[in-house]
Amino acid sequence: MVVLSQPALEPFSLIKTCKPVAFFSTIPVVDLTDPHAKTLIVKACEEFGFFKLVSHGVPLEFMTKLEALATNFFNLPQPEKDKIGPPDPFGYGNKKIGPNGDVGWVEYLLLNTNPQIAFQKTFSIFQENQQNFRYAVEDYILSVKRMTFEVLELIADGLGIESRNVFSRMLRNDKSDSCFRLNHYPPCPELQALSGRNLIGFGEHTDPQIISVLRSNNTNGLQICLKDGTWVSVPPDQTSFFFNVGDALQVMTNGRFKSVKHRVLADPLKSRISMIFFGGPPLGEKIAPLTSLIAEREESLYREFTWSEYKRSAYKSRLADYRLGLFEKTAGQ
Ligand SMILES: C=C1C[C@]23C[C@@]1(O)CC[C@H]2[C@@]12CC[C@H](O)[C@@](C)(C(=O)O1)[C@H]2[C@@H]3C(=O)O
Ligand SMILES: O=C(O)CCC(=O)C(=O)O
Ligand SMILES: [Fe+2]
């Protein structure tokens, strides 16, 4: 018997597919200049762990410039990009996500934003002819950080916490372990034609840090999981930012905010480019529920751990794992 191979499917053989889902029509949108912003942000973080921010003050030019330069970078010949990979976890990566066998229809550049590390490793990634790219990354990150500090201070205000820098100080710290990621999801028309499904670009997961701030071009793909377990597509908006609550903020709010499960599907016809700033604490920072957020007759749901401990544990996990499980207190502890 002759067994026919399916050469057209070969590059996708390890990458899962998924059916498209409905659009998220009631996505919380917060205007940063609105006097009620703090209340709206807290409500969105409690309900979805997710919101869209408009009138954010980050110049549009920084966003479009970086998108153009990232597109140029991803259009370089493969051997050029491979020179700055494989990721350790920083550097250029293609299809492989993290160290434990996760794959997706994505190529990316992962950078550390801590100046002490950044100047050694990250910026050696930008070779001589990539200086404009490096400056665009720096301008963008500086401006996004400023906006993120403001959002974190509004969150503290909205939660009625006395010291409004309780979260933002961890990102403002020189030793903050934040990182920045540029993702490129190439189109995949062959697969769509063959199966009527989309390739999974980035599989379902929560982000381990305090908060993630995402901006993408105008291509669909991002989906979030609602409390009832249904997945919804987030309509792209290239002029706005999408904020995700991360695991560390779930812990510090003793579960009042939930880190949002999300994933990305590749579009059959259009490239998706996204840029995400992951705001993380310094490695030695102790993460635990804030006493003022543990309600009367409520218990602390998590044991204290350092960010370094959590990160180590995250890097031993698979993308879709529930990473906080190991840090939950069991009854009576
Ligand atoms: C599979 C993995 C990739 C990841 C590290 C991990 O072991 C589990 C968490 C993953 C994640 C998700 C959010 C960010 O994109 C990321 C940089 C992070 O901090 O945690 C990635 C990690 C990665 O791609 O290196
Ligand atoms: O690329 C995207 O739109 C989101 C990717 C993501 O969730 C991540 O890199 O952690
Ligand atoms: Fe993510």
UniProtKB/TrEMBL annotation:
Pfam families: 2OG-FeII_Oxy, DIOX_N
GO molecular function annotation: gibberellin 2-beta-dioxygenase activity; metal ion binding
Name assigned to this protein: gibberellin 2beta-dioxygenase
Catalytic activity reported: gibberellin A1 + 2-oxoglutarate + O2 = gibberellin A8 + succinate + CO2
PANTHER family named among the record's database cross-references: 2-OXOGLUTARATE (2OG) AND FE(II)-DEPENDENT OXYGENASE SUPERFAMILY PROTEIN-RELATED
Pathway(s): Hormone biosynthesis; Plant hormone biosynthesis; gibberellin biosynthesis
Domain of life assignment: Eukaryota
Keyword flag Metal-binding: yes
Classification of source organism: Eukaryota, Viridiplantae, Streptophyta, Embryophyta, Tracheophyta
InterPro entries for the chain: DIOX_N (IPR026992), IPNS-like_FE2OG_OXY (IPR044861), IPNS-like_sf (IPR027443), Iron_ascorbate_oxido_reductase (IPR050231), Oxoglu/Fe-dep_dioxygenase_dom (IPR005123)
EC number(s) reported in the record: 1.14.11.13
Organism: Dovyalis caffra
Bilayer-spanning residue ranges: none
Required co-factors: Fe cation
Keywords: Dioxygenase, Iron, Metal-binding, Oxidoreductase
Function: Catalyzes the 2-beta-hydroxylation of several biologically active gibberellins, leading to the homeostatic regulation of their endogenous level. Catabolism of gibberellins (GAs) plays a central role in plant development. Converts GA9/GA20 to GA51/GA29 and GA4/GA1 to GA34/GA8.
Domain Fe2OG dioxygenase: 175-281
Iron as UniProt keyword: yes
